[in-house]
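In the design runs reported in the main text, the only information available to the sequence generator was the tokenized backbone. The following block is the verbatim input for one such run; it is reproduced so that readers can re-run the procedure and compare outputs position by position.
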């Protein structure tokens, strides 16, 4: 086991849900005041926030599904 799922859920709540859930990204999230809120940039934002709270070396990739046909995978590059 890489990580306890209860801990992962807590990290995801802090890094993703609290700052983004039910928010107008362009108006309510300071990061997107200067960055266009594309799916690619949302993936980068999630990566950066998760990196802050997860143990070092645990995060491998972030995958954001905008639609069934539009998926972004970001690996911190």
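Verbatim output:
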């Amino acid at each position: 086991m890489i990580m306890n799922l209860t801990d992962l859920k807590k990290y995801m709540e802090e890094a993703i849900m609290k700052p983004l859930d039910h928010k107008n990204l362009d108006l309510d999230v300071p990061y997107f005041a200067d960055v266009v809120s594309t799916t690619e940039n949302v993936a980068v934002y999630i990566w950066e926030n998760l990196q802050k709270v997860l143990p070092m070396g645990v995060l491998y990739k972030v995958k954001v599904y905008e639609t069934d046909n539009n998926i972004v995978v970001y690996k911190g590059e």
